[in-house]
Amino acid sequence: MARQAVQLDLTDGLSWYVLGNxxxxxFFTSGQNPQVSQQAMSAYAQAxxxxxxxxxxxxxxxxxxxxxxxxxxxxxxxxxxSRAVALDPAWEEPPERERQLLDYxxxxxxxxxxxxxxxxxxxxxxxxxxSPAALGPSxxxxxxxxxxxxxxxxxRCLSALAHGPNPGAAALGKVVFSLAPEGRMAFTFxxxxxxxxxxxxxxxxxxxxxGVLIGDTVxxxxxxxxxxxxxxxxxxxxxxxxxVDSPLLLIVNGKKQAPRSQTATxxxxxxxxx
Length: 274
Fold this sequence. Notes:
CATH 2.40.50.550; Serine Threonine Protein Phosphatase 5, Tetratricopeptide repeat; 2 domains; alpha+beta; 7 helices; nine-stranded mixed sheet; about 20% strand; 9 strands
């Protein structure tokens, strides 16, 4: 229906906006295909291109910011929430989402930079138990990686991981903190490797009952590494993270995670202007 409306009038900004919303709904209910996410972004951009009034639609900015946040494009997400606030000051959700995301980035950056304030002696003691044996199933020649590759994975320190995908590699470390922010989209924890480097890990599509505990040994097969440099208003954040799209991709304390560990991420967006 939404696509048909666009085809009837390619210059109708509202139809492009509705199509963008349809793609967002499809994205979160049908497996989170990256192509569908891009189609949503493109539809919103086209709405603004063909109809100047679309740029003044707070719903468009809010919904797109929600998708930006899920995609970990935090600077764009904050800008979108802020724009929605400016366009509709009486709407309570955009400033709350902006505040929550700023608080999340603030707390997460501090925890990573300070390694959750762990004492060096205690940290070294905990890390002393790290060994290749902790790779568990990923050390098997029959291990099937997220990319579809079959074969054992090579353990790498965080400093040796490239930005983006790391085929054939595994990140290995100990959990030093977990973070459950308001309105969270991901279960977030901090992992320290054998070199005592710390990195944030965001795990998506987790069941409410799933989590990791401080001291757990975690293996992340073929980690997707990101670098976030965000400036918004008077705050700046710079941190490195690993994105994990499902807890089923992790090995915790030598074990794969049970199917019940996973459930689809739920997000809040506004389907249409009220």
